[in-house]
From TrEMBL:
Domain of life: Bacteria
Pfam families, sorted: ETFQO_UQ-bd (PF21162), Fer4_ETF_QO (PF05187), NAD_binding_8 (PF13450)
Cofactor(s) required for function per UniProt: FAD; [4Fe-4S] cluster
Cofactor note: Binds 1 [4Fe-4S] cluster.
Substrates-to-products reaction catalysed: a ubiquinone + reduced [electron-transfer flavoprotein] = a ubiquinol + oxidized [electron-transfer flavoprotein] + H(+)
Name under which the protein is recorded: Electron transfer flavoprotein-ubiquinone oxidoreductase
Record's keyword terms, sorted: Electron transport, FAD, Flavoprotein, Iron, Iron-sulfur, Metal-binding, Oxidoreductase, Transport, Ubiquinone
Species of provenance: Limimaricola variabilis
Amino acid sequence: MTDTASQTETRPEREAMEYDVVIVGAGPAGLSAAIRLKQLDPEISVVVLEKGSEVGAHILSGAVLDPCGLDRLLPNWREMGAPITVPVRDDRFYMLGESGSMRLPNAIMPPLMNNHGNYIVSMGNVCRWMAEKAEELGVEVFPGMSCSEIVWGEDGRVAGVVAGEFGKNPDGTPGPGYEPGMELLGKYVFLGEGVRGSLSKQVIERFALGEGREPQKYGLGMKEIWEIDPAKHSEGRVVHTMGWPLEKNAGGGSFIYHLDNNQVYVGFVVHLGYANPYLRPYQEFQRFKHHPMVAELLKGGKRVAYGARAITEGGWQSLPKTAFPGGALLGCSAGMVNVPRIKGNHNAMLSGIHAAEAAYEAMSSGRAGDVLESYDTAVREGAIGKDLKKVRNVKPLWSRYGLTASLALGGFDMWTNTLGFSLLGTLGHGKTDAEATEPAKDHAEIAYPKPDGVLSFDRLTNVSFSGTNHEESQPCHLKLKDPKVPIGHNLPVYAEPAQRYCPAGVYEVVEKEGGPEFVINFQNCVHCKTCDIKDPSQNIVWTVPQGGDGPNYPNM
């Protein structure tokens, strides 16, 4: 019996199914947890719920994969046919100016920045393959199932989730084909929703899991897949750049990864702690492709896919407690990205393994629904914690002192951490990314060049290359706490930055006879969560649309 029973007068009766472990999200963390549970005991019942139309549809990552997590989970993955076939052969770092570049010697880079032994992959395809392995072990994997609510137990624990609610009218009332969804109940519930998950946010707040930690920090990662001239392609090459076009406007940088079939991943990350509300992360990405070094690489090629996703960047000092009554936060739901390496998939996999082992141990001793303290300990004291702790000062140094100083100080700190100590201790982040946004009157507008349709593209054209689709008759999944705030406060104070920070053109300020109006084109949403993070008034709340809606990434 759960405390949802007392609310039946305002919500429909739902059928319930019980499992040993319910996992939200078929990403690397959730699928690793599912596989490890079945390895430990084939009789454990496990369900994985994925909001994308198929596994991998909502997965967007760089991605250069450190295989340490997969090595532990499936040591013979090479013989099992994993879609991990492009080893890194060439590692390059550049500092960009507007018209030139300077390559940084690999020898000065801390050892942890070396990509030797890593692989260029599509994490969407890796997750599709992992889902097949999970199902072979008896895991039930259900794509197209958005988890819209938490089921709270009578004792206050997380007892399950509501999944598969369909057919609401735009006003939120049940439509003619309404399906109320089901309650999926578990002895433990693992949340592997990725960055800024809607259920994870609730759990972190309800159980004060972030108490005593620094605020979480984020970046916005945008990515295109390009098919390029075979003469310019170098399979296995990894390129990272810093500097132009962001320079002093914001932190961030780029990646260019040469995979197989003459394709390259071209990506750009903008740290969301920038101050100028006139900055447009998407346009910075498009401008980057016109740098001579990048333009020459892409000349004669074609873009075949686009997507965007927020990245957790707070690291060690922002990591919340990862265990709560009834479950655990996995991977990026907690924030396990190593920022200078731009890698988090290995830690996501390790977190899934740790959570599975903790839950197995608990259930074997007859426990259920309690706090998996051993999981939190494994995260903080094991390989994940050690990985994050070594680089913990890079992000705050960058935020405080800018690129040049952070390169020197951050590099020095990573070198000393390699030796087991840090002269800087653990630096704090200070403000949230929303609080970092400054009033428009303190900044000048930024003039961006128009896209040329060859190297650079407008937002809506690029969104069409993400496969994004939302059923328009459903309620808008982008909620405003107060509908008056965008025009009444954000527009006069911040020039309403939502119309600029969104990489999909979801938000507009439209001039009408009665004055400006804030318009939400939720159909364009690529589920990056930037609005939930960067809105200076914290007035926008990202929630899940009905299952299967959103982007449909093929090979991201």
